[in-house]
Design goal:
mainly beta, single chain, globular, about 110 residues, 8 strands
Length: about 110
């Protein structure tokens, strides 16, 4: 990661877990690692999911790209086809404000 994105703007620990978390404010994402098991993207992140959803996509675009998405409060969640990861789209006023990808913690081997 450091080769591709440089040093993180902040190195901290995940609250309640104690694993390292690297925050890249300028790029708009953070990574929880040891090993990598969660990535959260917010503005100004300019990337997208493999199905083209990015910060600023509409709820309708998410539902079209991910027809099996689960709607819950202000979030849309989609489990990966291999049942290992979740994509969680944080919504505000019908627009994606954050994208959170996490490993299904129950499947992690300690």
């Amino acid at each position: 990661m450091i080769e591709k994105f440089g040093e993180p703007s902040e190195k901290t620990i995940v609250h309640g877990i104690g694993d390292p978390e690297w925050i890249y404010k300028k790029q708009g994402f953070s990574v929880s690692l040891d090993p990598v098991y969660a990535i959260q993207a917010t503005s100004p992140f300019s990337g997208s999911t493999p199905r083209g959803i990015k910060i600023g996509s509409t709820e309708e675009e998410v539902k079209k790209a991910y027809p099996d998405v689960i709607v819950s409060d202000n979030n849309l969640a989609q489990k990966s086809t291999n049942d290992v990861y979740y994509l969680n789209f944080g919504m505000e006023n019908g627009v994606v404000k954050s994208i959170f990808m996490t490993e299904d913690i129950e499947l992690r081997k300690y």
